[in-house]
Amino acid sequence: MEKDNVCIDCYNQIDKVSKVLKLGQAELDILTIPKRILTFSFPVKLDSGEIRYFTGYRVQFNDSRGPTKGGIRFHPEVNLEEIKTLAFLMTLKCAVVNLPYGGAKGGIMVGPKRFSEQELERISRGYIREINGFIGPDIDIPAPDVNTDSKIMAWMLDEYEKLKGRHAPATITGKPIALGGSKARDFSTSMGGAYVLHEFADSFDMKPKKTSVALQGFGNVGMNIARILHEWGYKIVAVSDSKSGIFNKDGLNIKDVINHKQKSGQLSKFKNSKNISNEDLLELKADVLIPAALEDQITKKNASNIKAKLILEMANRPITPEADDILLDKNIFVMPDILANAGGVVVSYFEWVQNSMNFYWSEKEVLDKLKTYMTNAVKELSKVCTDFKCDMRKSLYINAINKVLEAERLRGNLK
Ligand code: NAD
To answer: Is 189 in the pocket of ligand 1 (CB under 6 A)?
Structure first.
């Protein structure tokens, strides 16, 4: 009976490392069965007066290292299996960057574009009414994710505080700055990835000016990391979004590309650039490839054509497991998502710390601390995996799983 809640995808993800770590049944259970799963439906009055029921989830996977932490996504295809896997990955991500947190994730089955702003506000507040007894600064701390943003976090916090009758800003992160959000939160994922790349490029003796970068995805993460790396002197030779891609072998002026995209709404027709398809961008002969758009972009179909020396996974799960094996055989170094894109959750942690102290840091203080957390995690990883040809994903999983199991052991939950 107790196995009913097992997360099959989590099982598959730890399969390779469970053999290396010789995990026993109790350890496997901790890593594949979430601690708490909430599934619920709640009514929302639409603008038309009609009442619609929405399905919501919150999974708190493991809290041995601290309160659980993870985003809330709005998507019509949200489902419990996906939320369980994402909550498991948050557990590992927080352990990798040494945050005193466990992992969680939540979501509502809703296509947000089909609802008015007022309806979305009522949906957000309805969700919090269902989970308010299970979240809080010392229990579980939600944040934005796919299709949710600081405005939605503000409504959610307000609903929580109304229900509790007191201020509690540390309950939710990713808030607007006026409600206790942190400086630099909006580009923290990209800045964290840039610090990781910089640290690793250095170990490869790749100097920014001589390092070419191809980047897939030009949204929040892609545009910001392009801007940062360009400012640091890296040569960004290609960028793309869902509609088109552009290429210049001598490097694109990213500030001008951003202006061009903001004015024209597209990347194509940028001066001194050639159009390039997304498929060709991934296979370009650039030193660094950064997938920053969607999952499953590098698969067994195109992995053998990848020519980059180093791949920085800014998107979540852009490389399939089969493609991962092919890249490893080709000695292409992959910096996995659970470290590369952890900058957002690190600054979420800083937001929670600032809310708890009621004392706020400057942008410089936030970025200095972010740099320390990200570079320390890279150094720690290098110790686990001293040979750069080794499998970084396996090393990160081993490192994170050991931390979670150590906490469980110290609590007396494991022999
Ligand atoms: P976003 O919606 O702001 O941007 C996504 C970008 O990808 C857009 O430019 C879009 O045009 C482009 N895109 C979509 N389909 C594409 C395709 N087929 N080919 C090329 N480009 C395509 O999203 P985001 O917040 O920048 O997130 C990007 C990725 O990073 C996602 O995988 C997300 O889960 C991950 N991530 C984001 C954060 C964060 O803080 N925003 C944190 C961790 C991980």
So the answer is: yes
Q: Is 170 exposed, middle or buried (0-12, 13-18, 19+ CB in 10 A)?
A: buried
Residue 303 is classified by DSSP as G
Q: Is residue 11 part of a domain?
A: no
Which of the 8 DSSP states describes residue 27? H
Question: Is this prediction's pTM over 0.85?
Answer: yes
- The number of the ligand 1 atom at minimal distance from the alpha carbon of 293 is 7
Is 10 a domain residue?
no
* Distance between CA atoms of residues 57 and 66, nearest Å: 21
Distance (angstroms) between ligand 1 centre and the Cα of 216 equals 9
Q: What is the pLDDT of residues 129-148, one digit of tens each?
A: 999 999 999 999 999 999 99
Q: Are residues 100 and 141 in the same domain?
A: yes
User: Are residues 192 and 315 part of one domain?
Assistant: yes
User: In this structure, what CATH number is given to the domain that contains residue 271?
Assistant: 3.40.50.720
CATH number at residue 70: 3.40.50.10860
**Cα–Cα distance measured from residue 247 to residue 216, given in angstroms and rounded to the nearest whole number:** 12
Q: Domain limits at 78?
A: 36-167
Positions of the chain with pLDDT under 70:
1-3, 386-390
Q: Does 212 sit in the ligand 1 pocket, CB within 6 Å?
A: no
Q: What is the pLDDT of residues 237-283, one digit of tens each?
A: 999 999 999 999 999 999 999 999 999 999 999 999 999 999 999 99
Binding site membership of 188 for ligand 1 (Cβ less than 6 Å)? no
Q: Compute CA distances 98 → 53, 86, 308, 376, 386, whole Å.
A: 39, 18, 29, 9, 20
